Amino acid sequence: MESLASGFARVDKTRDAHLFVQYLDLIHSLPFFRECKTRSYERLHLSPGDSVLEIGCGNGVDAKNLAEITGATGDVVGIDISITMLNTARKNIKTTSVSPEFMLCDGHHLAFPDDTFHAVRSDRVIQHTRDPFAVIKEIARVTRPGGRVVVFEPDWGTFSLWPEDPEISRKILDFWCDSIPSGRVGRLLYGAYSDAGLVDICVEPMTLTVTDLAIARKIFDLDTMFFKASQRGIVQKEMVERWEKELVRADLQRQLFSSLTFFLMTGKKI
After folding, report:
1. How far is Cα 1 from Cα 188, in angstroms, rounded to an integer?
2. Cα dihedral sign for 80, 85, 89, 91?
3. CA nearest 213: which of 176, 252, 239, 177?
4. Residue 123: which domain range?
5. Residue 58: which of 41, 28, 31, 82 has the closest Cα?
6. pLDDT at position 25, please?
7. Which of the four pLDDT bands, split at 50, 70 and 90, describes residue 15?
């Protein structure tokens, strides 16, 4: 069973890559993420004719939106390491008037010359990389002087799920965070921006709260979380089942609460 939270680094090798496409469609449908995306577009300070790089373009929705902002004279490029995602992105823009370009590329090694883009954006992608500092340096390298870098990432170390079971909750949540290549990337981004020489760094924490268990299961992939935790021997299966029953009870009584904090980072290249 592949995790929707940690499996984006190997989408094409999973049994059902389409599940990851569906997951992105769900994310794009939620008001919290729509608001976060709108803010990230604004932080890029784009003008018609600008060139923009979208790191990890996924289903292509963000690249399409950026292309609408930069207009017919703009140049938007979306990259991804998944052929499945690139094919989905190309399909999604066939019926639109904008035409961003999509290409297979790894964020650790961007296939562009120095100082290519007016702006670079990445949305929940760097958590799936092993070396966020190296990726941010690459992003800064291809950004033009005066250009902006905007990154939106979660910090899975902030993930909460209540009611808690003191005996097992923290073990499961820590295991989940550690199963993501860079699960605590949110707290690293300021250092990575500074290390890459970016200035005017702005940090905006944005917290997603979910009080419906059915939605929490989908967004946070709770079923896979619980299955893998018991499968790996982090906790006993019976203990996981006990916690799940408590969550179901709380949900029925409208008491369930879950949250995850994201960080919207903005910086400028000098």
Report:
1. 29
2. positive
3. 252
4. 7-154+182-207+262-268
5. 82
6. 83
7. low
- Please tell me whether residue 259 adopts helix, strand or coil conformation: strand
In a domain, 88, yes or no: yes
Angle of CA points 138, 144, 150, to nearest 5°: 65
Global pTM reads 0.93
Q: How many CA atoms lie within 13 A of 204 on its CB side?
A: 16
Contact 6, 180 (CB under 8 A): yes
Q: Which residues contact 75 (CB under 8 A, 6 or more apart)?
A: 50, 51, 52, 101
Domain count, the chain: 1
Q: What is the CATH number of the domain that holds 189?
A: 3.40.50.150
* pLDDT recorded at residue 4: 64
pLDDT, position 23: 82
**Tens digits of per-residue pLDDT, 68-125?**
999 999 999 999 999 999 999 999 888 777 889 999 999 999 999 999 999 999 999 9
Helix (H, G, I), strand (E, B) or coil at 138: helix
Q: pLDDT for 126-182, tens place per residue?
A: 999 999 999 999 999 999 999 999 999 999 999 999 999 988 999 999 999 999 999
**Average model confidence (pLDDT) across the chain:** 93
Q: Looking only at Cα atoms, what is the longest distance across the chain?
A: 60
In 10 A of CB 111, how many CB atoms? 11
Residue 236: inside a domain: no
Please tell me the number of Cα atoms within 13 Å of 78 on its side-chain side.
28
Q: Is residue 228 situated within a structural domain?
A: no
Instruction: Using alpha carbons, select from 168, 165, 163, 169 the residue that is nearest to residue 256.
Output: 163
Residue 250 lies in a domain: no
Say if CB 250 and CB 162 are below 8 A apart. Answer: yes
